[in-house]
Amino acid sequence: MTLRSLCIHAHFYQPPREDPLTGFIPQEDGAAPFSNWNERILAECYRPNAELGNFETISFNVGPTLLQWIASQDSNTWVNIVNQDRLNVHRYGVGNAIAQSYNHTILPLSSPRDQETQIIWGIAEFKHRFGRKPQGMWLPETAVNMHTLILLARQGIEFTILAPWQADRDDIDVSQPYRVRLVDGQSIIAFFYHRELSGGISFNPANTANADLFAASELLPKYQDEKFRAGQPQLLMIVTDGELYGHHMPFRDQFLAQLVNGSVHKLEITPTYPGLWLKSHSVKQSVGIRENTSWSCHHGVGRWLGNCSCTPGDGRWKAQLRYAFERVSQAIDKIYLKTLSPSVHDPWRLRNRYIYAMLGLVAAEELICEEAGKRLTEEKIVQIQILLEAQRERQRMYTSCGWFFDDFDRIEPKNNLAYASQAVRLVRLASGVDLEPSIIQDLSKISSPSTRLRADSIFQYYLHRAVLDGRLIAGD
Questions:
Q1: Quick one: how far is CA 179 from the chain centroid?
Q2: How many angstroms separate the CA atoms of 96 and 327, rounded?
Q3: Can you name the residues that pair with 100 across neighbouring β-strands?
Q4: Is the dihedral of CA 24, 26, 32, 37 positive or negative?
Q5: Which residue in 141, 162, 156 sits closest to 187, CA to CA?
Q6: What is the pLDDT of residue 470?
Q7: d(Cα 18, Cα 30) in Å, to the nearest integer?
Q8: Would you state the pLDDT for residue 469?
Q9: Which of 2, 8, 137 is nearest to 64 (CA)?
Q10: What is the DSSP string of 29-46?
């Protein structure tokens, strides 16, 4: 029996950078000599880790929107990543890749209906890319509340990964996963990562300069000798952003390869991943969670709501941006329901299933008529599809990166505003209802503390550019 096990989990993700009109990423000067940051990080991280076989030996998730981009721009790397998961499925019967909810939104700050859509879309994307149902799901920023876990369990997700401070007590044993009891006899398993090891790898470059030294001096001492002598298995989990390995820290892709393929084996530590661990170990302990918590904000989810000491600047604009988006979302949803309800039995089920059209697995027209239970007019089909695209943009505008940093004058909030403007434009095309005046009034109260850049100006720029372009749906 393996008594000392190690799981490295890497969360690979980049915020969406695509122009909502063209579907392509504009030139990003800071990424030179590459055209944009996705291309640069692909070259520095995703491709070399795939070539080294690191995706086979760790637990990982790749953000759905990022994986779409990789598949379209570097099919060899995409196939390489997927095949490394399939090797484990063939070898052990369980894969090491896990899913992620779709748009990297902060789920506890989303409505229950939006949470459900994000989870369903993420599962569908995973099935499409990896050819199997996911056992686990990564929650963006590990942000969680009980309702989020209930929705995961209802969709058949068996486990997720959390920070240790998200447990509802301080004495948890992070060398063991825990079962979180939900409702109606349901439960979900939580793997809690090792705080010190994860933080050390993430923020102390010296820790990752030598894999053998790290394994011997940092990792091995974290296993409890008394448990080892008693024959009790221990699983330590290290969780980081995947971009650490080669992008944030050059050559750390090679550190990772040496760590999992050589260094730990010398110390009789066995690399594993959650699905494989659960095949041979039972989960004996239970724990609750602290509601509305995350891994990158020690104040719950305050970082994405307004001023928070996690960021040093003036974040008051964040609450107003979320308020503006919430108001326009409610208006978009009201128009969506009013327009679809006479024709479609369940408009929200149609939105959840629209992911299959987004993935190109079914024609939108076919999906719409199937949910309507009859053949609709071409005019009605086009109207419904435009509103579904508005819903797609409405989801995308909540990408968490837009609230992560302290200054409004960054590319991430601007991108979110671009997606919001596209949603407003599509609603106007489909229904004739103009939501621009209302959201402009809300956005007029937001400006950058450092540059005075105004949110309403950014929104209007993207909206008017889209109107001049005249396209109905992005990418058409």
A1: 23
A2: 40
A3: 138
A4: negative
A5: 156
A6: 57
A7: 16
A8: 66
A9: 137
A10: GGGTTSSSHHHHHIIIII
Going from the first residue of the chain to its last (476 residues), give the mean pLDDT of each consecutive group of 10, the final group possibly shorter. Answer: 93 91 88 95 98 98 96 97 98 98 97 98 98 98 98 98 97 97 94 97 95 98 95 97 96 98 96 97 96 93 90 89 98 98 97 98 98 97 98 97 93 95 96 97 94 95 80 43
Q: Which DSSP helix (H) or strand (E) runs through 249?
A: none
Q: pTM for the whole thing?
A: 0.96
**How many CA atoms, within 13 angstroms, populate the side-chain half-sphere of residue 172?**
29
pLDDT value at residue 2: 85
Residues in the chain: 476
Predicted confidence at residue 310, as pLDDT, reads 84
Interatomic CA distance for residues 298 and 301, integer angstroms:
8
Q: Report the 10 Å Cβ neighbour count for 267.
A: 15
> Residue 411 to residues 64, 146, 173, 312: CA-CA distances in angstroms?
20, 32, 40, 19
Q: Tokens at residue 471, please?
A: 């396209």
Confidence at residue 476, expressed as pLDDT on a 0 to 100 scale: 41
Residue (of 414, 367, 412, 360) closest to 388 by Cα position: 367
Rounded Cα distance, 393 and 397, in Å? 6
Reported for 246-255, long-range contacts at CB under 8 A and 24+ positions apart, including other chains, are 246/44, 246/45, 246/48, 246/49, 247/40, 247/41, 247/44, 247/45, 249/205, 249/208, 250/44, 252/208, 253/45, 253/48, 253/49, 253/52, 253/54, 254/52, 255/208, 255/209, 255/210, 255/211, 255/214
**409 closest CA partner among 442, 447, 441:** 447
Which residues on neighbouring strands pair with residue 99, listed in sequence order? 137
